[in-house]
Design goal:
Helix 4 packs across helix 6, helix 6 (121-142) crosses helix 7 (166-177) and helix 7 crosses helix 11 (262-278). The protein has helices at 28-43, 46-50, 63-73, 80-90, 95-115, 121-142, 166-177, 190-199, 215-228, 247-253, 262-278, and strands spanning 153-158, 181-184, 204-208, 235-239, 257-259. Helix 10 (247-253) links the parallel strand 4 (235-239) and strand 5 (257-259). By secondary structure, the protein is of the alpha/beta class. The chain has a 5-stranded parallel β-sheet with strand order 2-1-3-4-5, sandwiched between helices. It has 2 domains: 26-142, no CATH class; 153-278, Cobalamin-binding domain (Rossmann fold, 3-Layer(aba) Sandwich).
Amino acid sequence: MAATLGLLVRDPNSPQPAAGQPVPLQDLAATIESSIIPRLLVSHGVFRAADVAVTGTPVAIDSEMIIAFAEELIALDSTRGLDFVQSLLSRGVAMERILLELMAPAARILGELWSADHCSFMDVTLGVSRIQQILRVIQGKAEGQAGDDVKGRVLLVPSPGEQHTFGLRVVEEFFLRDGWEVRSHLTARHEDVIAFVSEEDFDIVGFSLSAERLMEPLVSVISEIRRKSVNRQIRVMVGGVLFVGRPDLVKQSGTDVYVLDAREAVLQANEWCRSAKVN
């Protein structure tokens, strides 16, 4: 397990609600249960299509499983929550049960942990966005398509050797909210990144870098991405304070573009998306 919920502490650098403003996540689980879930149940055939006949002993969704799923939602590897849900589906658990008995309680647990200072505001918001991405992926598979609302696929990883990854979690949140399918792996090594892009079709790879001593590994991995990506038109972006006012480093890295923050990263990705559709 990448992180144990009982050991998480609030990150002082994570975004917090403004003083005097209502905390939007206090009623998060209630909102999911009273609004989001009923709308999805009514609007999407995914839940009916994803249901499979239960064979053998029915799977119990207990408190231990809910806590385990909540941990996966904020793991360093963003695919673990989806893997968790797909495992349940393969064992015959209906999607409606997963929504009502697993996802909503997991969201509530994250909200409660944030209120008790045991996890960060970003952990909670990212966990909820990952729930939304899981639903999009499951729906797309049930309908035999990727989903018309998904703009593209983004891989977010630190530059090889980079230890500072909080910024990537913020970038992931922005991309998820904007309708992109995101895979983030905050402990990925050079060979992991190459395996990802050579086996899966990503539109964009985003790197973060904070130290100039890691420039050589970054240059190396970007060069290999260009050679081995299954998407020959893959785009690469980098971010990090190291590149501020250093166009020489941006050029040296071999990236397509440097982005200042998460908002600029999404804007640039959308521009690439529009250009690809025109061409």
